[in-house]
Design a protein that fits this description.
Layout: E1 8-9, H1 42-58, E2 73-78, E3 95-96, E4 99-105, H2 117-135, E5 144-149, H3 155-168, E6 172-178, H4 181-186, E7 201-205, E8 230-232, H5 235-250, E9 263-266, H6 274-280, H7 309-322, E10 326-330, E11 337-341, E12 346-347, H8 349-363, E13 368-371, H9 377-386, E14 390-393, H10 398-410, E15 415-419, E16 425-427, H11 436-452, H12 460-463, E17 474-482, H13 494-509, E18 516-517, E19 525-529, E20 532-536, E21 544-551, H14 554-568, E22 574-575, H15 577-583
Parallel strand pairs: 2-4, 5-6, 5-7, 6-8, 9-10, 13-14, 13-15
Antiparallel strand pairs: 1-7, 3-4, 10-11, 11-12, 15-16, 17-21, 17-22, 18-19, 19-20, 20-21
């Protein structure tokens, strides 16, 4: 697998300071929408932006994305040869759903660098131009924009490019240095005049959990951007202080509500190490045994990913070795998280959603919990039958899940929690930001409240909340790849081909009395049978049909796999090798 080194996220999260709101949140619907009409060269785009930014933005036509969280994500992956000249840049190819993705570091054959410093600078300038255009209605002519990064090896050079572009355009930059993605969002909200907050917009450079390939020389800060002012701000301390106050508030104002609790953190050498010194220690927790807190873009220990088996084994072992009450693990930019209880049981995926649902439904009885499409049938039973809530299973993609929760509120259906099995989780009380640190604070609130009452059961107070969650004995994900060069596509798109596969499967299932299509489903084909279920769906961006199967035994899982294989095997452009191997076990 080709390793990736940098996923640049441009969080154009705009806090407009006026009363107009949408969907019950405090944020308006206006959004930075970078657009491209043609494959113009970088030079042409750069000059157009510099001379007449609004004109450039208004003459383009393809929106990148727009949603209520008001963020543009810009992902930079590790890659191979450098684009030899900027004229080769096709800005449309940087669009990937709600992301702006590009290859930022050389090293992988066949993946030429297309998110260079000039291109990054152009994107930053375009964002500032768009933002200025939106703010000028209020008489604002000079912007303050925050920029932060995770531990990626390409982070500094891209940060410098962003800084150079925006300051050259006459706007000010607040450099936060190592930061989390949720903190960047929050910098548009924080009221702190001393530290020049709130900002008008923020840019985060990150690659989430994606691995590196090779190192890259960082460049020095450019000295020629004299029109705008660059200020260094320790924003992570400000952000962490708010988290600490939230836990103290839940414990009735007690200064050290976690006193005596042993909590270990695995930051995976990403940006989450702050949680130990800036959150847990001020709350009185014992943190010995915490690991991989120092940022290191080479990720020498494990991939910082709460879904990764090696990563979860690492934090589980740390809990057991240190006899800790709780373990916490973050992904690189801390927008996802998971936990481990004192006995070594993982609290991630369906379990973490169940735990958060239990906490939220105590606070908001009967509320709707929105999740992605691959959550289990057992989770539905748990939320609806035990907790008395409503489970709204929607589509994959944290943006889809969050937007759906916001939409439900707008039409009168109360929802306070939106979560993906990946560990992305957003709460209405936290402005619908997917913040891994805030999710863990919700767990700490429960622990702190229990300690205030004199409880000494540690994380058992959390484990008890998910008691009764039915879990499948067998859980499988198999990816069926579509060969885009196969003659069977007949020149069509992989998406059209994938949709044809799904329609055929749906028709085949209707003829099988042992299988039953889900009565309400928003993505792919979801079917129950043989005491389990499967979901075949089309990937959001890639020529792949992921197949998820859950069952109470391997035999039952194989029966479900055979049903899918029988229906899709006639599609010769679909690689069913992995599925065939699974059903032969």
């Amino acid at each position: 697998m080709a390793a990736l080194s940098a996923k640049t996220i441009q969080n154009a999260f705009l806090a407009q300071h006026h009363p107009r709101t949408r969907h019950g949140t405090r944020y308006p619907s206006d959004f930075c929408s970078l657009k491209t009409r043609s494959m113009r060269s970088f030079q042409e785009c750069r000059l157009a932006v510099a001379d007449s930014s609004a004109k450039w933005l208004n003459t383009t036509s393809t929106p990148w994305t727009s949603f209520d969280r008001q963020a543009v994500s810009c992902n930079a992956a590790q890659g191979g040869s450098v684009v030899s000249y900027a004229g080769k840049v096709d800005f449309l190819k940087l669009q990937n759903g709600s992301d702006i993705r590009g290859v930022a570091v050389a090293g992988v054959e066949g993946e030429p660098v297309n998110l260079t410093e000039p291109v990054t600078e152009a994107i930053a300038v375009a964002f500032a131009a768009w933002l200025l255009n939106k703010k000028e209605a209020d008489g604002l002519r000079r912007l303050r924009i925050s920029v932060g990064h995770d531990s990626r090896i390409s982070a500094h050079k891209l940060q410098n490019a962003v800084t150079h572009g925006i300051t050259a355009a006459g706007h000010d930059i607040l450099q936060f240095g190592l930061a989390s993605t949720p903190a960047m969002f929050n910098s548009t909200l924080t009221e702190d005049e001393k530290n020049h907050l709130p900002v008008d917009g923020g840019i985060m450079i990150t690659a989430s959990h994606l691995p590196y390939n090779r190192n890259d020389d960082n460049q020095k800060e450019r000295e020629d951007a004299s029109r705008g002012v660059v200020t260094n701000v320790d924003y992570m301390s400000i952000y962490a202080s708010d988290l600490v106050q939230a836990v103290r508030k839940s414990a009735g104002g007690k200064e050290e509500p976690l006193d005596g609790l042993h909590i270990v953190v695995d930051a995976g050498n990403g940006a989450g190490g702050f949680f130990v010194d800036k959150v847990l220690k001020p709350l009185g927790a014992v943190t010995t045994g915490s690991q991989f807190l120092e940022p290191d873009g080479l990720f020498p220990n494990h991939i910082p990913n709460p879904e990764d088996k090696t990563a979860m084994m690492a934090i589980t072992q740390a809990v057991l070795d240190n006899k800790a009450d709780l373990g916490i693990i973050f992904d690189t930019d801390v927008d996802r998280s998971a936990a481990v209880d004192s006995s070594g049981h993982e609290l991630n995926r369906n379990r973490l959603i169940a735990l958060m649902a239990a906490i939220v439904l105590e606070e908001h009885p009967g509320t709707t919990v929105v999740t992605d499409s691959v959550t289990s049938d057992g989770l539905t039973v748990f939320i609806e039958n035990k907790l008395g809530g409503k489970h709204h299973r929607f589509k994959r993609g944290y943006k889809n899940v969050i937007d759906e929760a916001i939409r439900l509120n707008s039409v009168g259906e109360e929802s306070h929690l939106a979560m993906e099995t990946s560990g992305h989780g957003a709460l209405k009380e936290n402005h619908w930001l997917d913040d891994g640190a805030y999710l863990m604070v919700k767990l700490l609130n429960k622990l702190a409240a229990a300690r205030t009452l004199g409880s000494s059961i540690g994380s058992k107070v959390l484990t008890d909340l998910v008691d009764g969650l039915e879990e499948a004995a067998v859980t499988v994900e198999i990816r069926l790849k579509i060969d885009q060069n196969h003659a069977d596509l007949k020149g069509g798109s992989f998406r059209d081909y994938g949709e044809a596969v799904l329609r055929h499967l749906e028709n085949a299932i209707a003829k099988d009395s042992d299988l039953h299509k889900a009565p309400k489903n928003y993505e792919g084909v979801r079917v129950s049978g043989y005491g389990g279920w499967f979901l075949l769906r089309l990937s959001l961006h890639d020529p792949v049909l992921p197949l998820n199967i859950e069952a109470q035994s391997k035999d039952d899982a194989i029966k479900l796999g055979l049903a899918v294989l029988a229906a899709v095997s006639e599609f010769s452009a679909l690689d069913v090798t992995a599925l065939s191997k699974f059903v032969r076990q």
